[in-house]
Amino acid sequence: MPVASQLLRGLPRAKAFASSLLPCQHHQSHLGSLPALRGPSQTWQTHQLGRSYQTSSALHNYILTPPQVNSILKANEYSFKILILLFVFIIRLQVPEFDGKNVSSVMGFESNQLPANAPIEDRRSAATCLQTRGMLLGVFDGHAGCACAQALSERLFYYIAVSLLPHDTLCELEASVEAGRALSPILQWHKHPNDYFTREAQSLYFNSLRTYWQELIDLTSPGDVPDTREALLNAFKRLDNNISLEAQVGDASAFLHYWVLRVAFSGATACVAHIDGPDLYIANAGDARAVLGVQEEDGSFSAHTLSNDHSAQNDSEVARIRSEHPHSERKTVIRQDRLLGLLMPFRAFGDVKFKWSIELQKRVLESGPDQLHENEHTKFIPPNYHTPPYLTAEPEITYHRLRPQDRFLVIGSDGLWETLHRQEVIRIVGEYLTGFHQSQPLKVGGYKVTLGQMQGLLEERKARMSSAFEDQNSATHLMRHAVGNNEFGTVDHERLSKMLSLPEELARMYRDDITIIVTQFNPHVIGAQRQDDES
């Protein structure tokens, strides 16, 4: 087994079609031309307005049966359960000498994806750190194609895991490579078969990662204990730097040369959770979001947001960007709530169009493959482009010490949060996981309803509370609500069917790609770990 692939042991074998790069290679970006560059603002506005036009002809042309709806919603769902936790916890109760510090606070997670773009530009990843402790979960929202998000889904967790390794382990890793010995896996991946790896790029990725850990060896000393916050920060920044350098250097392989340029010229936001016992870190760059579900004493759930959106709606982000550029650019650096009037997230990986100098962009493109010249987006220079870089992948890091009442974490791409408020997201998931339904006054949102309609709504609520859920996956259940909720806050099958049957050219006008990871915590283990730490 080649050294470069040994770190990938434990990966599920992907389906043949999923392991190819064809989905990304044939994607025509919505930023593919100058009109399209300005188009996303219109597309987003159309998406928002589209929710109120439920009687449009586009929504009435296609009807799916309930089995067909379920097939679409469940196509990309994935579940991972740590069943041994209950057994271990019982042992801890019966054997006082049992050390429960290494028992995971995570009971498991469930994830799902629903495309609006063709192909989907979102990616997701989940993995267990094998040479340190903890679990990593992340959502990556791509734009201008899926290449950058794909690269992040494969690479970022390795950079984080390496950043968390102590000096001696890094030295052992390097010694094994030098001697040609087998390497101990760093991560155990938990992936859906469709969450493929770009096999052709693994040697390139490995060499860049190895250079990074060699530098960490030089910068650290025996006995140093890595700081999680610093490790997350360095991993994000270093991977983005490597994406940029690889695109500048190119590759002897025409395919790889084209691929690294596609990764660099597309972009992606990232929201990553690192969970180790009661310690929860969120590293976020962009507008994906992480929200904690907290169970109150009365059994209801409240939302505790653990990340900030890096967009024009964040005053601190607006102030940060304006402070990094001359006063003469104050009116142009952010226009129409977008960076340079074009990009909605203010932090992202890739997107070298907003980071490189004009001279560097022209030099790289001139020496690039012919396929790249066919994409108008790569040749277009953003307006008022005077003092790059305008964009960073540096994450904002949040720490939260888990408590027994912290029951689950929802990480979602912006496609989720555009359709549901965070409190509604937490309520839906909380009720699904616990079976506890928080009865609220029936709201009709100012609409005029007949007594018959009101009776129908009440009967629907009664049926929903008394019957078993049809979804076996909390992320799927949440997705069903995100796409199918009507103005009364309940799932309307007819609306859900119509939204899922929209043709590709119309789907993106009504919603974005949606990616969801729901991580469930073990309150008993968290309580025991907090007691151990305090004693």
From TrEMBL:
Its cofactor is Mg(2+); Mn(2+). Residues 302-327 are annotated as: Disordered. GO terms for cellular component: mitochondrion. Residues 302-316 have a biased composition (Polar residues). InterPro entries: PP2C (IPR015655), PP2C_BS (IPR000222), PPM-type-like_dom_sf (IPR036457), PPM-type_phosphatase-like_dom (IPR001932). It comes from the Eukaryota. It is found in: Mitochondrion. Keywords: Acetylation, Calcium, Hydrolase, Magnesium, Metal-binding, Mitochondrion, Protein phosphatase, Transit peptide. Its main location: mitochondrion. GO terms for molecular function: [pyruvate dehydrogenase (acetyl-transferring)]-phosphatase activity; metal ion binding. Residues 106-521 form the PPM-type phosphatase domain. Residues 317-327 have a biased composition (Basic and acidic residues). It catalyses: O-phospho-L-seryl-[pyruvate dehydrogenase E1 alpha subunit] + H2O = L-seryl-[pyruvate dehydrogenase E1 alpha subunit] + phosphate. CDD domains: PP2Cc. Its EC number is 3.1.3.43. Mitochondrial enzyme that catalyzes the dephosphorylation and concomitant reactivation of the alpha subunit of the E1 component of the pyruvate dehydrogenase complex (PDC), thereby stimulating the conversion of pyruvate into acetyl-CoA. Belongs to the PP2C family. This is [Pyruvate dehydrogenase [acetyl-transferring]]-phosphatase 1, mitochondrial. The lineage of its organism: Eukaryota, Metazoa, Chordata, Craniata, Vertebrata.
